[in-house]
Amino acid sequence: MRDYSEVIKTIVALCEGETDTISKMATISCELFHTMEGFDWVGFYRVVEPELLKVGPYQGGHGCLVIPFDNGVCGACAKTQKTQIVPDVHAFPGHIACSSSTQSEIVLPVYQDGKLIAVLDVDSDKPNDFDENDKVALEEILKQNF
Ligand code: SME
Question: pTM of the predicted model, to two decimals?
């Protein structure tokens, strides 16, 4: 089970008083990517038009730029507004493979003033690398900062 206590404190300290959404997304991506084991890609896809996500701040190899709500794990998260935990990306219909090394992922909705503004996507090169503990901690980070 991952321990998020330090990274939560760091993110709170770095983002305190910041109102710019992109700056906070960049900081959160950076901190999670560089401190959490198994976080091989971390980034945000932003809702830029109805039913359309475009890549935002991220860390890791290149991510695809555009994801319609009907595609991939990120699209499923945006459409349902529910966190998606995918233990085996190869078994997820319509998964978008930005990197062939990705084996599992978690994607969470990001809200501002009660409105969906983005999703947070975390990919791991290990199968079955995310669970309820990750969901709770990452949802907490998003709630605290947006
Ligand atoms: N895995 C995502 C696509 C984004 S990349 O992994 C960075 C998906 O299927 O939604």
Answer: 0.97
